[in-house]
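Write out this protein's structure.
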Amino acid sequence: MPQFKQFPMPDTAEGLTEAEILTWHVKPGDAVKVNQVIVEIETAKAAVELPCPWDGVVTELLAEVGQTVEVGVPIITIDVDPSGSAPAAAPTPTSAPASNGKIGEEMPGGRIATLVGYGPRAGAAKRRARKDAPAPVAAAPAPVSAPAPVVAEPVAAPAGGYVPLAKPPVRKLAKDLGVDLYALSGSGPGGVITREDVEQAVASPAPAPAAAVDSGSRERRVPIKGVRKATAQAMVESAFTAPHVTEFLTVDVTPMMELRARLKNAPQFRDVKLTPLAFAAKAVVLAVRRTPDVNATWDEAAQEIVYKDYVHLGIAAATPRGLVVPKVRDADRMSLRELAVSLDALATTAREGKTTPADMMGGTITITNVGVFGVDTGTPIINPGESAILAFGAIRDMPWVVDGQVVPRKVCQLALSFDHRVVDGQQGSQFLADVGALLADPGVAMTY
């Protein structure tokens, strides 16, 4: 008899509650091996490839591409004994591994061992209740040889919060027939929309609504999810929690650009992409030494300010999936060359959409390089958990007074936003002035 197991959506990073199915790499009938990549998902932090926890044959995909699935909800069913030599087993959301944690087995406490962590606690995820759904109807147990029905949520819910419940095959049928699931009332247990409900809607279409102005024919709606959703939540939380102050400074960076030109021809920098951002990063980590408050964190729960003797430098990066802020770990311990190499690797990984959730956690201070877009400056919003962010503007040829004479110089603008609970005006001003001084005269670094 076949032996079915279901693989639930794992928690790939601390605190995640859901993820979107980006791409399935398998289909029903495919043979799979342990550690074979079966699906790519997008969480609130990054795109992640999930490996298969067992050997076997895929019997059913329980979520469609584009669907958002809560952590703990099964996404695939696998027959782990397709030869039929094992006794039958009812498909259950894999509660698995014993203490040594083979992949897919249940660990102590009800967690699932996977290659991306121990996964969610069994039964931890709860589906949102439908507003007008009737009380669930008790049903007889399914035969042990038949998979238990799994109801998955749709890609997105409207502002009112109502979520129509239907299995993926029913959703596909509704899509093919042009039936709006939000307009149906499910006749199945718990308000689940069935195939018969969809077919009935086609056979007896609802009366056409009164004529109205077509205001949406030139509009496009995209569900808010993934990286965009996480970014929005983080920015709102920061903007309305930390009292922001932003200060500005215009700097003559001609000496920095001259040093960059000389270093690019030096043997140790010939194979390095030495950008102005690398100089800004070096200036920030040096300036932190004199003003450690900008590298601290306000802990509201403990009513403490946490000072950190390290700099995990965040670099805001625009990617096809939205804004991400990967970190350069222990940037304060790096030379200018090491920073340049790390920044280049970080940018390449971000553009390819391969930044991992772990790479975007635990930052202490951030730089946003708006200059690459030709922008002079802005008022950046502090990343949650940090106390300052520096906007590094475009470097332009501008008239500048030097020794009483107006001459063309390389000039850029800096903007520093800081949390006024942690950083006083004097401290923020000192830090910004120090960064500006290091960029205007890199030799100042000798005094730090």
